[in-house]
Write a structure and sequence with these properties.
12 helices; Cobalt-precorrin-4 Transmethylase, domain 1; Rossmann fold; single chain; 5-stranded parallel sheet; 4-stranded parallel sheet; 3 domains; alpha/beta
């Protein structure tokens, strides 16, 4: 059995920045540092930061007055920002700059009098944060049926944005459906699907046809990790997602000639190494990293934490 490693895989620049913000806040201010929602959707990362003194909360009311809070990489609604200011909390914003870009697009479109359709997953923190950039004038669509049933007040003043972690192909299908229903709908100048999501999906599209089975390292609530599994399946490979090497079931790879391995943008490389070790223990004879795009993107930390 041979193991193929997708390139690129694992952490993206936005995830690295978000984790660094929590770690620097802890180093400079000491524990506890409160984090609203999971900083990124990965259990290993969250547990590691919790062990260092991060306290993860669902709502700001769980943060004591004067406390320090970090907003997660997924972004927050304007109402959350206002509540933090009202309660006198010190905020470090770990929102991914590519999500912030979408928020800026939404604000600009609303100022220009557009209704906005967001293509995203209902209940996902990023979708909630983007929808929360406006009190009204926004619609969330998740499926083609949602597009078919969508009712807007001004079809000629309509625009769309997308969640950054969607399947590139699924987003394209949704956009095409919107354009069929609303021919004058306006999109962002630059695609909202983030570079890391695109690159990791492209790497799986390259790898999956060469594999009998693909294993994606990622937590169940990670949108981009779930999309990698779906992409592998669409390319004809059996595909499974594991939170860690312990989740790998021997029967998934029994008798398989080639096993592909990748990781979502919130999954650290240590989990990939542990999975590869587990595959070796189950009979993998070789490990071949595939060629792929080299990512050079880096995002700066907030000024106070970068000193």
């Amino acid at each position: 059995m041979e193991v193929l490693l997708a390139t690129p895989r694992g952490f993206c620049a936005g995830v690295e920045r978000a984790i660094a913000i929590v770690e620097r806040a802890l180093a400079l201010h000491g524990a506890p540092i409160y984090v609203r929602h999971e900083i990124v959707h990965n259990r290993y990362v969250v547990d590691s930061l919790r062990a260092k003194g991060a306290v993860f909360v669902d709502e700001l009311e769980q943060v004591p007055p004067g406390g320090i809070v970090v907003f997660s990489a997924h972004g927050v609604a304007k109402a959350v920002e206002a509540e933090a200011e009202r309660r006198g909390l010190k905020v470090f914003d770990a929102t991914c700059p590519l999500v912030t870009k979408v928020h800026i697009e939404v604000s600009k479109m609303l100022r220009e009098g557009y209704e906005i359709v967001m293509i995203g997953h209902k209940g996902h923190p990023e979708a909630e944060g983007t929808m929360g950039q406006a009190a009204s004038g926004m619609h969330l669509v998740e499926t083609l049926d949602d597009v078919a049933e969508l009712e807007v007040s001004a079809p000629d003043r309509l625009a769309y944005v997308t969640q950054t972690t969607l399947s590139v192909d699924d987003a394209a299908a949704m956009i095409a459906a919107l354009r069929r229903r609303f021919p004058s709908i306006r999109g962002p100048k630059k695609d909202d699907i983030c570079y890391a999501t695109q690159n990791r999906q492209d790497a799986v599209k390259f790898m999956a046809p060469r594999c009998d089975v693909v294993i994606v390292v990622g937590s169940p609530n990670s949108s981009n990790s779930n999309r990698l599994r779906e992409v592998a399946e669409h390319m004809g490979a059996q595909a499974y997602m594991v939170d860690s090497a312990a989740d790998l079931r021997a029967e998934w790879i029994s008798g398989k000639r080639r096993v592909g391995v990748t990781a979502g943008a919130s999954a650290p490389e240590v989990l990939v190494r542990e999975l590869v070790d587990r595959l070796k223990a189950l009979g993998a004879a070789s490990v071949l990293p595939l060629e792929g795009i080299s990512e050079e993107v880096a995002f700066s930390l907030p000024r106070e934490l970068a000193r």
